[in-house]
Amino acid sequence: MKKMIDFIKLYAESEALNLVVSLKDLKSIDGMLELLENGFDDKLKELSNKKPITNNVKLGTQDFIIDKTDSNYIGLFILNENQVEKRNAGGTTPIDKFIENKKNIVDKIFGIEKINYSKENILIISEPGLIVENMLLSNFKIILPKKGDDVKKFIDEDNQGNMSKFLIYSMFGRTHLQLDYKNTAIHEYPIAYFKSLSIYLELSDEEINKLKTFLNNIYSGYHRSILKGLVQNSLLIFDNIRNNISNNDRDTLISYYNLSNDNIVGDFIDLFYENNKIKEDIENILNKNSDFTDKFTEINYLAVNSENTFNNFGMVKYESYSQMMEDSNKKGIINKYFTTFKSKLESELIAKKKEFEKEEKEFFDSIDDDDIKTQTYYSIKNIVDKWVRGFEKSNGYPFNIGENGRLIDKFVFVDRAMNDIGDSCIIDARSLIEMSDDIDINVFTVISRLLSQNGFEFFPLQNFMNFEGNQWEDSFKIYNNITTDITSSPAFVCMYIGGTSSTLNTNNSYIDDGLLRLEEGEDFNGEGCGDGDTYLVDGEIRSSLNVKYGEVNAFRVRYGRQNQSMFENIEINSREFPETNESLAILSNLAKDESNSTPIPKAQNLYNLYENRAYSTKITMLGNAMIQPTHYFELENIPLFSGSYVILNVEHTIRPNHMKTTFSGVRILRYPNPIVDNFAESIGMLLGLSSSDDNIFGNRESEDNIISIDSNDIPDEAKYNSMHPNNDKTLQI
After folding, report:
1. What is the pLDDT of residue 729?
2. Which residues does residue 662 pair with via DSSP β-bridges, in sequence order?
3. Fewest 10 Å CB contacts: which of 64, 108, 232, 378?
4. What distance in Å separates the CA atoms of residue 702 and residue 677, rounded to the nearest whole number?
5. CATH 2.40.30.150 segments of the chain
6. CA distances from 628 to 247, 444, 491, 583, 590 (A)
């Protein structure tokens, strides 16, 4: 008894803690405390007036109802051979090897597989009639030679009606239906099993009694008593299913097989009888008439939502609060549960409220100062003036830039060739959960950290310059006056570079993975690139907002030439970069489980952009205010380090009559890491339902963005990246 009380206490306190954890603000906590003080007991009593709850289980977008009296209950689905694709023998995945090496006892005895898996890794269980060779139609060979005349007489008296159809399709009552089909598997069975069941469901009690009497007569005195027992067991299963199946499932079976106009009885008479006498050599007749036997041996598949589809074993009936309180055996348990639940809930709510109030007080105390409030105001005002609103030159009043002035319109999400990827790239936003606990973090830090963890470079540029015509070339010329022809606007440029070069051109066994000339990069010359004023999204042309999509500005740094005086200093640096925790965790999850029931979430942080080493260059040149981050330069005349670099930082040093510009960039890959545009992944298997019917297991639209990739499907574009499995030269040490 003490153990039971302790369990009730543990269960009640756990539920109270779960409820408290879900409350995220003071308003919710105060509302719950008010309910405990002023109406909790009344709410419990109201349950006695409620209609019993329908037991529904919701999976995905489809309701699976386990109350068989519900008019919407659906317990089974029937699939044909085209809707289930089995795994092929000789596969190399772990499940293929399991099937090959771990055959069960039935396999060893009969040499025929009992279990298999679909391409979606769903277990397929074969019925006994399919396991043992020639067992399915063996009853024809046993019964007809000795009882053929009795069978013909029964059929004539039934006028070839439903009792006769059942007799033939059930192979004289010898089927192997079950009451407890597993809802975690697909069941493979001969079509005759459920054809006979669909007929049995339509028979009257009187017809069923006649059938049982006839079957008992033809098996009575039969020397194979085991066979008679099997038939009697089959009939018991038919009766149980008939009594326990839901109305919807009954109608589903009857309408699916639709045997009202079936001519199986006439075909049976024509095949096995001549002049009202049974023919000899039944086995030879069966072997030569596949059109007839196919009506029994064709394969169907059954999937059930509940193991109670054909039975009522262990079904739990819902009891309302008032019903349980009227039961003297349950009243004490119910009182103990709710008393403990209420006490624990109240104490935890009070503790959490104090915690919220403490945090709130610390926050307001930290800003309860006029100087801090003033500084906060000007900080926000500067951000708004600089990035959000701007100023109208004529009158100085702030105004919104763009058609609607939304801040998001100042953000551009591009790849390294300035092609728009805002509608396709998927990022991992889980870091927002970690940052939500830091009340001192600012918006800029949140955005910067979120982007950097997903491989994006973040360039908040107050004056992002767009060059027209020859303006970029002219920006390297010397002028005596200041020109203002170049258009500029605030822009938050979020650029996915796709990784940096980690192998130089050393003429040894390691292949240079860098891009020597920008024009050699496929993404800089692809069909999807924009033309500056417009860009493509899913084939649709859209107007550019703050940047010229599909256009990059680049220049060459020919350091060391005697007749150049523009670039005066160069610094080369190489840095080691370990694998990121995010990429290791995601790759580990992808590799250890190939079940599509639990796809692994992934985003742009999957790729370790700094594979092993990154090469950067810092250059000092004659002052040029037109150079900005996102520009490119091609480094020449520097052994090993020559190639294309993207500029990440720019600094200008100005003093009287003198100006210097210093910029730094990283060497980019020839083939960048791809854009992640699918939110989940599984490796080493095929995903998706083989069936062409999307309604079999409910609406699967949520899996449209889940794809699979085999370990041999690594894109060829990655062949120059370090440690690619097909790069034999790279692996030569």
Report:
1. 37
2. 620, 651
3. 108
4. 14
5. 407-577+612-674
6. 72, 20, 12, 31, 39
Residue 322: Cβ-neighbour burial (10 angstroms; 0-12, 13-18, 19+): middle
CA distance 405 to 388: 7
Q: How far apart are CA 126 and CA 45, in angstroms?
A: 51
Percentage of the residues of the chain whose pLDDT score is greater than 90: 16
Q: What is the pLDDT of residue 129?
A: 57
Q: For residue 104, count other CB atoms closer than 10 A to its CB.
A: 10
Backbone angles phi, psi at 610, to 5 degrees: -100, 90
Give yes or no for a contact between 91 and 139, defined as CB atoms under 8 angstroms apart.
Answer: no
Q: Which of 161-175, 295-309, 399-413 has the highest mean pLDDT?
A: 161-175
Dig out the tokens for 191 from the structure.
């079509």
Closest CA to 232 of 619, 93, 560, 224: 224
Per-residue model confidence (pLDDT) at position 75: 83
pLDDT for position 371: 77
Q: In the prediction, which pLDDT does 47 show?
A: 59
- SS3 call for 283: helix
Q: Which pLDDT score, from 0 to 100, does residue 614 have?
A: 73
Contact 464, 628 (CB under 8 A): yes
Taking the CA atoms of the chain, what radius of gyration do you get in angstroms? 38
Question: How is the chain split among helix, strand and coil, in percent rounded to 5?
Answer: 40, 20, 40
Whole-angstrom CA distances from 46 to 34, 51, 65, 81 are 17, 11, 25, 52
| Residue 381 structure tokens | 């005002």
Q: What is the mean predicted confidence (pLDDT) over 367-377? A: 75
Mean pLDDT of the region 419-443: 81
CA 398 from chain centre, in angstroms, equals 46
> By C-alpha distance, which of 115, 125, 124, 126 is closest to 85?
124
Query: Measured between alpha carbons, how far is 685 from 670 in angstroms, rounded to an integer?
Result: 30
Q: What is the rounded average pLDDT of the residues 126-143?
A: 72
Using the CB atoms, write b or e for 471-480: b if 16+ within 10 Å.
bbeebeeeee
The C-alpha atoms of residue 438 and residue 424 are separated, in whole angstroms, by 30
Q: Which CATH architecture has domain 407-577+612-674?
A: Beta Barrel (2.40)
- 130: nearest Cα among 302, 304, 298: 298
Nearest to residue 390, comparing CAs of 399, 382, 381? 399
As a whole number, mean pLDDT of residues 694-705 equals 39
Adjacent-strand bridge partners of 298: none
Q: Token pair of 441, please?
A: 């973090």
Strands (E), 81-194: 115-117, 123-126, 185-190
Q: What are phi and psi of 541, to 5 degrees?
A: -80, 130
Over residues 303-317, the pLDDT tens digits come to 887 778 888 776 655
For 447-467, the pLDDT digits (tens) are: 888 888 888 888 888 788 888
